[in-house]
Amino acid sequence: MRARLGAIVAAAAVAVVVPAHAATPAGPTPQITDPGGDANFINGQNFVDVPDQTTPVGASSADITSVLFQTTYTTQTVKKTVVQVVKKKKVKKVITVTVKVPTGFTITMNLAAAPGASTIYRVTAAKGACTGLFFEYTTSSASAALGGSTDIRCASGEEDTTYDIGPATVTGSSIKWTVPLSQIPLNTQFTDLGAMTAIDWTAVTAPFYDLASGTASFTVGK
Fold it and tell me: Which pTM value belongs to this model?
């Protein structure tokens, strides 16, 4: 009887522990999401408002699935003075704490497949006077209009503004732009977020592969 009771208790303990280990914390929510299978030159080509159309044939390397704006941080150790009550008396004490300090932000465009040749990848946003800020990456070195493979530029509403960032990085099917606070400061807000992919127009005049948009905004440092 004791053996059976011990087995039941052990089984109950396992039943409690397993779900706790199986739980996976949710990641950050992208500001832009887009259905897969719609990179087919049909959707919203600036000529007519066409809802997303998924088709059996599409350019998966230009198929946007999501875009995530995310603040980047570094950790610093600082000393902080706190007041503690010891034997009913307030005592000041210096303690060491670790704090997160914003360093800038990243924009990650996720695709259905790895980026393809002769393709322009762009994330768009409005920022202050700039109503059309472009974060761009192209896989064609012939695209002089983009100033190389990576660029940030204001296409409308703001003049003579230049940004100095490193090359975008490609990992699998994701493209990431990294922007330091020296280029775009803390508390800058981005609205009217969008994204697009297109054939490099230095090679051919063509409509967009895919367009995506989101209703969320993003503020650097939040």
Answer: 0.75
